[in-house]
Design brief:
The protein has helices spanning 8-15, 57-60, 93-106, 114-121, 170-177, 210-213, 220-227, 235-239, 284-303, 313-317, 324-333; strands at 2-7, 22-29, 32-38, 64-71, 86-91, 123-128, 154-159, 162-167, 182-185, 246-253, 256-263. It is α/β, with parallel strands linked by helices and 336 residues long. The chain has two domains: 2-191, no CATH class; 210-329, no CATH class. The strands form two sheets. It has an eight-stranded mixed beta sheet. The protein has a three-stranded antiparallel beta sheet with strand order 4-11-10, with no helix packed on it. A hairpin with a 2-residue loop joins strand 7 and strand 8.
Length: 336
C-alpha cells in the first residue's frame, strides 16, 4: 500500500484527472443523505461529508435492475452489464467493510454475479476516516474502527491543511502520486499519520463464535422474546449495507418482456412462501432467528466476516427502537 500526503488543493486537482469517471458523493436531499452524482467542483474543500442514510449498496446492488430482455420464441438476450466507471468518495470505513461482506456473497464461493462484479470492477471507492462517532454507530464495539481501510481503494485522513491518503489500489495511487508532497510504502494503517482519529472507552459486544450460535436455532422462547416488539416492516434490512435478499420477476409486455431483480427482505412473510402454500418461516419468530443467525453465525461461518459492520442504520430506522446491540447481549446471556 502507498501512503501519500497532499495539500487539499492538490488532492482535489488530482481528482480532476478522473474525468473518465462519474463522481458520486453523499448529498443531502431534504431529510435523506444518499450517494448522488456530482462534479469535482462540487466536492467540499474540507472533504467532510455527512454519513449516508442509505448505504453504498444501492450503487452495486440497485433496489431494482433489469437483468435482460427477452422475446417470445427466441433465446434470452445477453446480460445487461453496467460498465460505467464510478469514483465514489465520502463513504465511511463501515461502508467499505460492508462491501467486503457483499463481495463474499456475490464474487466468491463459485457463485459469481456478473452484474455485481461489473459494477465493483468499474468503481473506485475512497472512504474518509470518521471525525467523530455517531450516536448510533458501534463499529468499535465489534472490534472494527473509524480509521480502517477495510478493503476500500483508499481512505482519506484529515491532517489539517493537508490530507493523508492510504491507497490500496495501484491505479489510484499512480494518479495521486504526481500531486503528492511525500509518499511511502506501508503495510497497514498503524504505520501512517491518521490525524485526529476519534477514540472512546467501549465494551466489546459479546459476539460468540459461529458454531456457538448453532444450538440456539431450536430455542423458540429466545426468538419469541426478541421478536415481540418487531413490526416486520423490513426497514432494517432495506437500509442495512450487508443485507442482500432479492426477488426475481419476469415482466411480460406482450411478445417481449424483461427479467428484473428487486430488493426483498427475510423479514417479510412472502419471502419464504412456497408455491405449495407452505412457509418454513411463518412468523416473526423464525424470521428474526434467520436475520440474527445470518449476521452473526452463517456469514462468519462461511466467509470469516461478521454480517454486521456497526453502522447503526438499523437502530435509526426501526420504529420499535429495537437495538441490535442489546439483542446481541441478550442472546449471549440466554440460558433457556
Amino acid at each position: 500500500m502507498l501512503y501519500l500526503k497532499l495539500t487539499r488543493k492538490n488532492f482535489l486537482a488530482a481528482l480532476e484527472s478522473f474525468s473518465d469517471y462519474q463522481v458520486y458523493a453523499p448529498k443531502r436531499t431534504e431529510d435523506k443523505v444518499r450517494l448522488k452524482e456530482i462534479t469535482i467542483l462540487e466536492l467540499p474543500e474540507n472533504l467532510q461529508f455527512e454519513r449516508c442514510t442509505h448505504s453504498a449498496k444501492e450503487l452495486f446492488l440497485p433496489p431494482e435492475e433489469t437483468l435482460f430482455y427477452f422475446k417470445r420464441f427466441s433465446s434470452a438476450q445477453k446480460p445487461l452489464l453496467d460498465e460505467t466507471k464510478r469514483l465514489i468518495i465520502g463513504l465511511r470505513p463501515c461502508d467499505a467493510r460492508a462491501l467486503q461482506v457483499l463481495d463474499s456473497n456475490f464474487l466468491q464461493g463459485g457463485f459469481d454475479d456478473p452484474y455485481y462484479r461489473s459494477r465493483r470492477e468499474n468503481s473506485l471507492v475512497l472512504t474518509i476516516a470518521c471525525r467523530e462517532f455517531e450516536k448510533t454507530c458501534f463499529c468499535d464495539a465489534l472490534g472494527l474502527g473509524p480509521d480502517l481501510l477495510n478493503g476500500a481503494d483508499a481512505i482519506i485522513y484529515d491532517l489539517g491543511d493537508q490530507v493523508g491518503v492510504l491507497a490500496g489500489n495501484t491505479v489510484l495511487a499512480q494518479r495521486l502520486q504526481a500531486f503528492a508532497l511525500e509518499t511511502k510504502e506501508v503495510e497497514n494503517e498503524t504505520q501512517v499519520d491518521r490525524g485526529a482519529v476519534p477514540s472512546r472507552e467501549v465494551e466489546l459486544l459479546p459476539v460468540k463464535s459461529p458454531e456457538e450460535y448453532f444450538p440456539l436455532i431450536f430455542q423458540d422462547k429466545l426468538w419469541e422474546e426478541i421478536e415481540s416488539a418487531c413490526l416486520g416492516c423490513g426497514a432494517c434490512s432495506y437500509l442495512c449495507p450487508t443485507c442482500y435478499c432479492f426477488d426475481i420477476t419476469d415482466v411480460n409486455l406482450g411478445p417481449v418482456g424483461k427479467r428484473i431483480r428487486t430488493y426483498d427482505s427475510c423479514m417479510f412473510n412472502m419471502y419464504t412462501l412456497e408455491a405449495s402454500g407452505h412457509n418454513p418461516r411463518p412468523t416473526l419468530k423464525e424470521r428474526w432467528r434467520q436475520r440474527f443467525m445470518h449476521k452473526f453465525s452463517y456469514i462468519p461461518y462461511l466467509h470469516g466476516l461478521l454480517g454486521c459492520t456497526g453502522c447503526g442504520r438499523c437502530l435509526e430506522a426501526c420504529p420499535s427502537r429495537i437495538d441490535i446491540r442489546e439483542v446481541v447481549k441478550y442472546v449471549a446471556t440466554f440460558t433457556g
